[in-house]
Amino acid sequence: MFKSEYQKKLRTPEEAVSIIKSGDWIDFSVALGFPTLLDEALAKRKEELCDVKIRGNLIFGPIKTVECDPEREHFIYNSWHCSAYERKLCDRGLCNYIPMIFRNVVPYYKHFLTVNVAMMCVTPMDNHGYFNLSSSTGTAKGILNNADVVILEINDKLPKIYGGFDESIHISEVDYIVEGEHSELPVLPEAVPTRKEIEIAQYIIPKIPSGATLQLGVGSLPSAIGKLLSQSDVKDLGMHTELASDAYVDLFEAGKLTNSKKKIWRGKGVAGFAFGTKRFNEWVDENPGVVTCPLEYVNSPYVIAQIDNMISVNSCIAVDLYGQISAESSGLRHISGTGGQLDYVTGASDSAGGKAFVCMKSTHTDRYGVVHSNIVPHFAGDIITTPRSQSYYIATEYGIVNLEGRSTWERAEMMISLAHPDFRDELIRMAEKQKIWIRSNKR
Fold it and tell me: 242 catalytic, yes or no?
């Protein structure tokens, strides 16, 4: 029954995208869900179309509908959260960021946004007529449910990831299906922590108890925390995270990731999205210990707060002396996105025994070789990701501080203690000018 319905809906990529009209809104899903065959077929229709708006996020690239149209007369690409590739598109004026909080993305679609055509990669259909949404579950089903037309691109290289709910779509909900050859899945390189990142991780590790549940993102700092925890005496850790990546594999292989102490989803690691190295993709494939759920659930502060000893670890670009955190732009240059940082800072702060850490190196070096402090007197144009009213633990290679309940002068002292010594005197001078410093003239 399902096989005959499948054949009736089977199209070539060119046939499937022929339904797209000028002015339509198209959705490309996220990361490994990006439909490369359909994107290529749509790019070939460039001269026939104008003002086609496309949404995606965390896409490894290349996106041919973007690359073929540098004047943006035909295709206008927008991202919910920028990958390194999409950041370069932003620098070239070929991508616009969509401000959001990740738990709200699907509600945006439900209440406010138009999706004329949604297209994304999925695993092959099973015997019951279902296609697994793989690593895209966090937002995929919510987008598909709100699309006028649904086109699925079959990629047999995708891992099949079990779900709590909304991890699959049935053949009866699909309009067209596309098959074709796919190259190997894009993967993230294995993250190698720097000395400074290991130093930052060493400040955080002692504050993580056995039985804690972890939210760790992608990158070398989460990797450092995963590796150090895997070598520590901490045990019975859990996973509840917007994005699962290789740090959890290290913990699992060391016998530390058991999910046995969680009050909800006991025995299961929960994620919204999942991608990493080839080793990671093999780990999540049909792994009963890993489930994906929509981000409205995974990133809900209410849900996160129900998990005792919830430990959230995120990174940022800069923090000012007031405790404002910028994690998505450098000045007005867009870097990544809000993601779930605010979701987890809020939820972990409300968890019994929970802690929310935001981490960064104390300095960065620009392309001219000039070193700058990542702790600044105040922001002037940078996008604020987490407001000062919700800042919790901040860590650099020079230490860790807890800003909760602290006044502006206390925050200034604490933040300057985390700065590189070469910048501390200037930061004190600016704190005095901003009237948030009392140590130099009152003690």
Answer: yes
